[in-house]
């Protein structure tokens, strides 16, 4: 019993010391406010991730790091936000992978069409060595990648007709992100692919200057695209990550203990958003159907894959060894 008492006492002392060390890490830290921006609304997964991150960071730094959220593109579109992070006018954001790939082109490898067969396969690659390597490459352009949240599997909507095969896309004016892989993917499918910022796309759909767009179910639902998009195809043509990303000016001003908290909190917030997205998708699809959207659940995926094969030929070498490494990891 004496040995047990001694070991219990030792454990209590060591836990107390650990707690003291943890608490003291932030005692002398000057308070910092970080502005976290994104371009979607408060019902979107990005905001769910951002709110979770805010809670975790403020708790774990004992309030020394305060996170202020700026949704709805109030600080600019995604490219503007990334440029702001580089020069220090914006601190951080949750940013769709496509625009990030304009700064580090290898990031676009994740968005090759029909690369990932499932969410779980994507998470394994993103949270593993390949994903970390690419996050680290952001430092070359004065950005700091923290973790991969998600935009999710992207699906096609349009105002003209049901789409079950590539032939049905022929001639449709489809908004895509400002990213060459997306542009060329939809051109191979026969669409008139029109790259533009999301804020502009919403107006263009309302005015009928474009016929459709492609995005995950949660975006289609939260932005009420059923109001002007009658048709949806569960094409799941691309899995799009999103990135918790900071500007190096903001990252560099933080002590190491706070940096560690931000990395861990970003990963936890990302995993939280992924779970919420998966749980909400079936409810959102039911709501879209109820709102009058016609949904093609089983398009001819093999025909789509065949149509986009030239995209792999065109871009494969551009990503160095990342594409073969991802394909090997997915086997």
UniProtKB/TrEMBL annotation:
Segment forming the signal sequence: 1-23
Protein keywords: Signal
Keyword Aminoacyl-tRNA synthetase recorded: no
Keyword Chaperone recorded: no
Pfam family, one: DctP
Name of the protein this chain belongs to: TRAP transporter substrate-binding protein
């Amino acid at each position: 019993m004496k040995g047990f008492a001694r070991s219990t006492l030792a454990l209590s002392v060591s836990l107390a010391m650990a707690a003291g060390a943890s608490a003291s890490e932030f005692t002398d830290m000057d308070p910092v406010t970080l502005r976290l921006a994104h371009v979607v609304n408060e019902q979107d997964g990005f905001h769910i991730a951002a709110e979770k991150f805010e809670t975790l960071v403020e708790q774990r730094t004992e309030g020394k790091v305060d996170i202020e959220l700026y949704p709805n593109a109030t600080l600019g579109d995604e490219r503007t936000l990334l440029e702001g992070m580089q020069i220090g006018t914006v601190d951080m954001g949750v940013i769709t992978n496509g625009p990030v790939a304009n700064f580090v082109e290898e990031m676009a490898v994740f968005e090759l069409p029909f690369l990932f067969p499932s969410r779980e396969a994507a998470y394994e690659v993103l949270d593993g060595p390949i994903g970390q390597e690419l996050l680290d490459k952001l430092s070359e352009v004065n950005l700091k990648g923290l973790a991969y949240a998600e935009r999710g599997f992207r699906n096609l909507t349009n105002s003209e007709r049901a789409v079950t095969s590539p032939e049905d896309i022929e001639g449709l004016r489809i908004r895509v992100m400002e990213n060459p892989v997306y542009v060329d993917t939809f051109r191979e499918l026969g669409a008139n692919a029109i790259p533009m910022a999301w804020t502009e796309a919403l107006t263009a759909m309302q005015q009928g200057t474009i016929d459709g767009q492609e995005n995950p179910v949660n975006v289609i639902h939260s932005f009420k695209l059923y109001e002007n998009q009658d048709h949806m195809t569960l094409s799941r043509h691309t899995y799009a990550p999103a990135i918790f990303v900071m500007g190096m000016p903001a990252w560099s001003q933080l002590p190491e203990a706070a940096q560690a908290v931000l990395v861990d909190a970003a990963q936890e917030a990302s995993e939280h958003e992924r779970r919420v997205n998966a749980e909400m998708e079936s409810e959102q699809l039911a709501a879209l159907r109820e709102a009058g959207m016609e949904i093609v659940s089983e398009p001819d995926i093999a025909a789509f894959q065949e149509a986009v094969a030239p995209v792999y030929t065109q871009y494969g070498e551009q990503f160095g060894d990342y594409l073969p490494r991802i394909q090997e990891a997915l086997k």
